[in-house]
Amino acid sequence: MIVKVCGLNSIDNIASLPLSQIDWLGFIFDEKSPRKVTINPNEQFFEVTKNHKRVGVFVNELLTKVFSTVKAYDLNTVQLHGQEPVEHCAYLRNYGINVVKVISVDEETDFYEYEKYEPFVNYFLLDTKSLKHGGTGRKFNWEILQSYPLQTPFLLSGGIGPDDAEIVTQLSIDKCIGIDINSRFEIQPGIKDPVLIQTFLESIKDTRYVTD
User: Fold this and answer.
1) What is the C-alpha to C-alpha distance for residues 132 and 159, in angstroms, rounded to an integer?
2) Most buried by CB count within 10 Å: which residue of 129, 141, 159, 183?
3) Which 3 state secondary structure label does DSSP give 183?
């Protein structure tokens, strides 16, 4: 199971997390987000994050800005959280950048609308539909995922919190290969609670999501 911790904005805070149990570190570059990155990509940043996939989160950003940020922070992956067209995903993939496309989910979501993205993304990330583009702390109805029809594996996001360990371990959904945690593990926006995360990850450490 992939574990992604998103919305990070302090090198010291990242260093305090149980990094051996975390796979992806998410950094938000949306100007409107309260977790918008202010970290300086210096030697300390690269040392602390060197063993992890660095994921940059963008919302309807110009590709020139995405590319310059990828270079500055040496990002492994770009997560597109807005209404980005297929062409943006294809362009990024053509340059060897891993792409995660967010699907904002509510009761009206038609997953088939995202079939056109499948040749150009590595993963989808399913988050609760919101005008804030994530970080709401709210879940969508996970029962919807039982009928997920796409072939691309996805990470589950949206309101996962410290009290959700049991339900996370019991999830049995085809194509779900990991989870993304964020706002419900925070001391303040951009600063995570290492104890909450450690306890939660210890509770789910034996969980294995399998995709066929």
Assistant:
1) 13
2) 183
3) helix
Closest CA to 79 of 64, 61, 95, 94: 61
- Cα–Cα distance between 82 and 134 in angstroms, integer? 10
What's CA 145's distance to the chain center, in Å? 17
Largest Cα–Cα distance of the chain, in whole Å? 45
| CATH entry, 2-204, from 3.40.50.10350, 3.40.630.30, 3.20.20.70, 3.40.640.10 | 3.20.20.70
181: enclosing H helix or E strand: strand 176-181
For the chain, the structural domain boundaries read 2-204
- Which tens digit of pLDDT belongs to each residue from 131-154? 665 556 688 999 898 889 999 999
Tokens of 92: 């990024």
Rounded CA separation 153/177 (Å) = 6
How far, in Å, CA of 180 to CA of 194, rounded? 15
